Fold this sequence. Notes:
seven-stranded mixed beta sheet, 16 strands
Amino acid sequence: MATGLGPVAKPAAVCYSSYPLQISKCVLQQATNMGTTAVFYYSEVDAKQALKPAFYLYPPPPEAPSRAPQRIAHTCEVRDVRDLAEAPQLDKEGFAFVRQSSDVDFFGSDALRADYFPQVEALVREHTGAAEVLAFDYNLRGRARVLGGEDGVSNPVKSVHNDYTETSAPQRVRDLLPERADELLERRFAVINVWRPVSGPVLKSPLGVLSATSIRSQDFIATDLIYRDRLGEVYSIGHSPSHEWYYCSAMERDDVLLLKCYDSSRQVAARFTGHSAFETGTVDDTLPERESIEVRTLAFF
């Protein structure tokens, strides 16, 4: 059953059984007090660049011009939601931390969509009140597994971005549900990512989230994702000193982040957010790499 996480005390004890090495309580305390600043990598586009920014998601043709935005490091304050008096809300800040247990073997399941997607859809319905929810895509992340050559696993992304735009979110509905798209796009809908650790506590590469209320419209940089067979679009995000960063320290397997990437309603404060993995430099490099799964959903109201 899912429950709200809200403002809670930092973990007092941790089960180390899932880790390949011993983690001292001193190191855990260090990792759950990650300091107040961290480095985030923002995007910047040269004003002289004529072409729209883009990333190729396959080896580009030799003659293709480079269109990737510049990656600029900025040191920002980041706050732990466990220290907040009020829990963040999906329609205000654009994200929420909740709890949900799951016995799915995320890296070992041959039927991850069949086993886990119904749990994700139920969770989003419970916390949003959506009438219909469709889980449609997922990413498994783990740096150690990538280095080991495991297929179907990606590294944590350390660039500030948002997965969908004013254009690409409605297009995803048309792509996935073509026969019902006209009807569904008349309703309010949202794209909500469901992110959780595969194991915990997360002591390296936690996920930082930008409060939607701190992002200006001019911070969003529409950026093409060029696949071999289709074109997608995300928002890269430019830096602003007004940005407010949050994360949840020492997340466990049952701690789940609901992250709104798009909302068609213009009546809510949070229509888009931004997110990125980050490091503070305070955690021992010998600690296990973060492993996580994120599932993308369409929620129709």
